[in-house]
Amino acid sequence: MSEENSPPRRFTGHLLFVLDLTGTFVFAIEGALAAMRGDLDFFGLMVLAFITALGGGIIRDLLIGAVPPASLQDWRYGAIALAGGAAVFFFHRLLLVVPTQLIMLLDAGGLALFAVAGAGKALSFKMHPFIAVLMGGITGVGGGTVRDVLLMQVPTVLRADVYATAALAGAAVMVVGMRLNRSPQAMAVLGALVCFTLRVVSVWLHWNLPKVMGQ
Q: In 38-183, which residue ranges form alpha helices assigned H by DSSP?
């Protein structure tokens, strides 16, 4: 079969697993840092680490029919999320001097990893490319949205300069590349870089999406 007529390439289970676990650990740390800033106790910190790390993936899996969700089938997801939370709790003195910019970079990294992992999993379940892009965005912002609600804050996705938009852009780049039959690994890296770069640059340059102007 010629390359032009070959079916679109799909993510392998191993690649999805690596992206999911890496994003889980990164977002667990970010969620635990948010709990620390919110002055929560150990239990609250671990809950926020768990929810931030796994919430988006659980929502994605429920929407695409991957039930039970992967993070509830495989104990390693929960273990890694709780390990990230515990690391923040026990080494919090070191993290107190972490610059805000570094925390932003950590969050952008988690967002990028989950955006491409979410879109890739949706494609592996033969979702339409448009839906796969949406699933990438939901995976990236879902856990953080639940975290912010628990902290009684307006979710970051609704107020950040460019947040969900960055996740959707990264997912779209990856999905389009895979529809063109490019390497899943290369497209995952490219999509993640687009998401990460767009998020970081938008913060540094104070980019904002258009808003409805008041009377």
A: 42-64, 70-73, 75-90, 92-95, 100-124, 129-150, 156-159, 164-179
CB atoms near residue 168 (< 10 Å): 21
According to the model, what pLDDT value does residue 160 have?
A: 65
Distance, in Å, from the CA atom of 32 to the CA atom of 48, rounded to the nearest integer, reads 6
**CA–CA distance, 98 with 206 (Å, rounded to integer):** 22
pLDDT tens profile 44-69: 999 999 999 999 999 999 999 999 99
**pLDDT less than 50: residues of the chain:** 1-8, 215
Query: Distances in Å between the alpha carbon of 166 and those of 10, 37, 70, 200, 214?
Result: 22, 25, 25, 9, 26
Output the six-digit token pair for 101: 């910019």
